[in-house]
Amino acid sequence: MTGTGQRIVHDPGEHPAAHVDALAELELALRQPLPHKLQGVLQAAADALREAMSERQAAQRRYEALFDAVPDPVSILSATGVVLDVNTSGVNAYGRSREEIVGQPIELLNPDLPANHLEPVWETLKRGQTYVVEVTNMRGDGSRFPVEVHSAAFEHDGQPCIVAVARDLSRRWQAETRYRLLLESIDKGVMLFDRNLGIVSANPAAHRIFNMSGMAPGRLPLNSDEWITVDEHGRRLGLDQWPVAKAFRNGRIIPSTIIGLYHRPHGRMIWISITTVPVFSSDCDLPDHVFSLFSDITELKRDHALFDRAQSLAHIGGWEWDRGQQCLYLTGEAQRILGQEQPPGDLEQLLSCLNSSSRQLLRDAMEHEAEHRGGFELELQGQRANGHSFWIRMIGEVEPGDLASTRIAGTFQDITEPKHAEETLKNQARTDPLTGIMNRDAALTDLEMRLSNPSHAGVAVLYIDLDRFKTVNDVLGHNAGDQLLIEASRRIRDAVGTEGLLARFGGDEFVVTCDARDLPGRPEQLAEAITLAFAPSFLFGKDEFSVTTSIGIARAPQHGLRPQQLIQSADLAMYECKRRGRNGWLEFCEEMERRQNDRLQIERRLRKALERNEFRLVYQPQVDLQSGRIIACEALIRWRNRQLGELRPDIFISHAENTGDIVRIGEWVLHEACRQIRQWQDKGLGLIRVAINVSYRQFSGDRLARQVRDVLDEYGLPGAALELEFTERVLIEDAPSTLRTFAELRQMGVMLTIDDFGEGYSALNYLRTLPIHGLKLSQLFISGVPKNRSDVAVCEAVSGIARSLGLGLVAEGIESEAQRQYLLQLGVPVGQGFLFAPGLSPVEFAHKLR
After folding, report:
1. Full-model pTM
2. Judging by DSSP bridges, how do beta strands 227-231 and 774-777 pair with one another?
3. CA 657 – CA 727 distance, rounded (Å)
4. Residue 215 pLDDT > 60, yes or no?
5. What residues have CB less than 8 Å from 5, skipping those under 6 apart?
6. Cβ atoms within 10 A of the Cβ of 699, count?
7. pLDDT in the model for residue 776
8. CA-angle at 347, arms to 342 and 351, nearest 5°
9. Around Cβ 197, how many Cβ atoms within 10 Å?
10. Which residues pair with 459 in a beta bridge?
11. pLDDT at position 56 over 70
12. Would I find Transmembrane among this entry's keywords (predicted)?
């Protein structure tokens, strides 16, 4: 039995030899002639033997099936540890055939067993107990696997034997390894407590959270005077209120609970969210252990507190609408914003504190968000319980991942103060700060709204400009000018009453908008009333000034369908009124429109004239009135357009000044004149001084002076080669800047002259302070001498001013010998005009100079 390979579990077809021999002898005896009675006895014995052998065969088959059906390896060992038999699971587990195992010592399967390993086994078995041991088995290929072996004793053929069942522990070891790795790697704290609330085990995260390093094993750091425990609201907790104690007491899971722990020695506060699970041993009605799983939420708690604080400071609150439960949840700050002492339980309570339009907005937004998503942002207005109104900005969206759109959440922001400030700013943005009436933007907006409604198409506009306002402003100063504008707006407002809407358009210009549908003559009536309102003079202390109005009238739709078009038509009518003598009113007509179109054509083509080289300069000689010798010349610009033909300078120069194109044109004139001076000098004609006109728009900081210096340097000319002529308007635009520019130009050697002196009304205020060289007598006055007494008086006055200030004097527009003789007698040394020569081309001027 120890080395033959014979199975203890026999083949079902085998029987003991004694049984076979007995049956053979019975069958032989039955074949002999025997008494009938004896033969019956033998036959019964043979049948009984056959039945016994059949039952034994069935039992053997059952035993064999049971032996091989056991899923764990089962080995039958002799008393000395030799393998007598092994089941099919053992053959498969060890990776060896049955023949390789049976008859071999158990060390073949357990090579690490010590020499006396059977002694403790038999000692346990003799006491009638089962011996259990964990060992490592070895397969036929040399690989190992852990097993837990359960051994029991029995006798076979009178010999003591051992049946050993080996349970493969590989999966259990893997599970335990994974469990250990999980406990060691997760950032959640895990502790196992016994019934005395002592710590049986704790993972590294628990040690890290509670800083348990150096503590005695099994000591509960939370069950000491060093720790104070509070609930999430800051109320102190006794040990019996701890979730662990509750789990032991109730035998139920205590779900996530927030508690705070304050460590006195270190002044450290920890907040955790803890879940406790009771563990029951077999046949126990109370847990003997409790597992606690917890997370450190200290930062989250701090962030939440800071977030609540930030919400309060920023006036931002949170909300959530549970459509399924029909419940509305509000944060504390949201309740404060809405003025709710108790949070609304449903959406209707929130809607009740909003005004009607806001309620409908919110309902529509909620329904749309539930169906289509995408989020919404609304500005809603309502009233708090204390009667104060509020504005909120409400933002909301379906919570991510909510497929059924059951929850819509977002924020409230209190925007009451910004809204009130916005309304204030809107009012300020629509109001002229000086007069308190509507400003330009507000008037245009109102006019646009009227014109957009066909039923209001009969609107009329009165464009009002104050005559001689600049005189008051320049003579008495800006304060007096402001007082005049305030009084003027009052007079217009009183004259208009409720029949029109008054706005200040800027400077001394006002606009009145009125409805002319029911009364077509209303615009004219209002214009007449305004004119009469300005009949009384304006008083400023002891000074009295007569200020009148020039008014232009335009109607929709005849004179324009757009605000700017209608305003422009009224503006044109106002300028025509000024041209005709001021102090009255005039309605826009087709002739004005034609002139307007002409002006637009001129301005449109003027912008491209430089690029198309349509400008040229001609040069009119300036001569010594006594000898007739040419001493200088004035550069005059000419423009010839292919569509418009030759245009007079007095036409296109004013357009260029209105559009600002005069700045680019002036730069071109400066370059072209200096280029021509250089060319004449290179041809041996000497240095000829050229006078050019400079517009008031070319004054911008030190731009003009820098420009003149750059051009002179470019052509290598001295400053004396240039004479710059300015109109009197330059003198009153910006005195400090003008003085600085004039001084820089004079330092370069450039001659400075005031052109058309006497036509303005403010030059004398500034003339004495400017570093200029001379004056030019306007052609307007020269044309009447020597016969017109008024023109003679003006010429004598200007001549006297020039003499007293030591300034040179040039007369322009001289067309007759009588005018030349008069000017010589007056002491005017230099003149220009058709009497001597018109504007000449550069070649013609050079020829005349020779």
Report:
1. 0.43
2. unpaired
3. 13
4. no
5. 98, 99, 102, 103
6. 21
7. 92
8. 90
9. 15
10. 515
11. no
12. no
Bridge partners (DSSP) listed for residue 295: 273
pLDDT-derived band at 341 (thresholds 50, 70, 90) equals: low
Mean pLDDT, rounded, of the chain? 82
Handedness of CA 392, 395, 399, 405 (dihedral sign): positive
Beta-strand relationship, 584-587 and 549-555? parallel
Average pLDDT over residues 373-380: 88
Identify the DSSP state of 433.
Answer: T
Structure tokens at 31: 């074949």
Q: CA separation (Å) from 519 to 1, 459, 523? A: 137, 11, 9
Q: At what angle do helices 17-30 and 36-69 cross, to 10 degrees?
A: 150
In one-letter notation, the amino acid at residue 137 is N
Cα–Cα distances in angstroms (integers) from residue 312 to residues 337, 340, 414, in the given order: 9, 15, 10
pLDDT tier, 845 (very low <50, low <70, confident <90, very high otherwise): very high
Higher pLDDT, residue 717 or 366: 717
Q: Is the peptide bond before 344 cis (omega within 30 degrees of 0)?
A: no
611: helix, coil or strand?
Answer: coil
Q: 């680019």: which residue's tokens?
A: 664
Cα dist. 827→550, 758, 767, 816 in Å? 41, 18, 21, 17
* Whole-angstrom distance, CA of residue 838 vs CA of residue 815: 10
Which of 365, 375, 377, 379 is closest to 415 using CA atoms? 379
| CB neighbour class for 812 (10 Å; exposed up to 12, middle 13-18, buried from 19) | buried
CA distances from 75 to 3, 97, 98, 589, 704 (A): 15, 13, 11, 126, 117
| Orientation of helix 703-715 relative to helix 662-682, angle to 10° | 30
b/e string for 263-302 if b means 16 or more Cβ within 10 A? beeeeeebbbbbbbebeeeeeeeebebbbbbbbbbbeebe
- If you average pLDDT over each of 278-292, 427-441, 702-716, which comes out highest? 702-716
- 637 within 8 A of 670, measured Cβ to Cβ: no
Rounded Cα–Cα distance for residues 38 and 18 (Å): 23
Give the C-alpha separation, 6 to 10, whole Å: 8
CA 465/CA 551 separation, integer angstroms: 6
Unique residue bearing structure tokens 């003598």: 581
Contact by Cβ (8 Å): 12, 46:
no
Q: Tell me, what's the pLDDT at 587?
A: 92
- Write down the pLDDT at residue 36: 66
| Calpha distance 172→182 (Å, rounded) | 15
Measured distance CA(716)–CA(700) in Å, rounded:
25
Q: Are 835 and 817 in contact (CB under 8 A)?
A: yes
Residue 476 in contact with residue 540, Cβ under 8 Å?
A: yes
Q: Read off the pLDDT of residues 32-44 as tens digits, 9 standing for 90 and up.
A: 676 666 666 667 6
Model confidence at 27, in pLDDT bands (50, 70, 90)? low
Q: Which amino acid is it at 199?
A: I
One-letter amino acid of 310: A
pLDDT, one tens digit per residue, over 583-632 is 899 998 878 777 777 777 888 888 888 888 999 999 999 999 999 999 99
CA distance 506 to 469: 13
CA atoms within 13 A on the CB side of 795: 28
Between residues 338 and 402, the one the model is more confident about:
338
Do residues 438 and 502 touch, judged by C-beta distance below 8 A?
yes
Contact between 575 and 568 under an 8 Å Cβ cutoff? The reply is: no
Distance CA 801, CA 778 (A): 15
Give the closest residue to 586 by CA, choosing from 524, 503, 640, 632: 524
Q: Could you give the CA distance from residue 534 to residue 593 in angstroms, rounded to a whole number? A: 29
H and E: helices and strands count for the chain? 29, 32
In this prediction, residues 198-225 reach a mean pLDDT of 66
CB 833 within 8 A of CB 813: yes
β partners of residue 145: 137
Q: Residue 494 belongs to what H/E stretch? A: helix 478-496
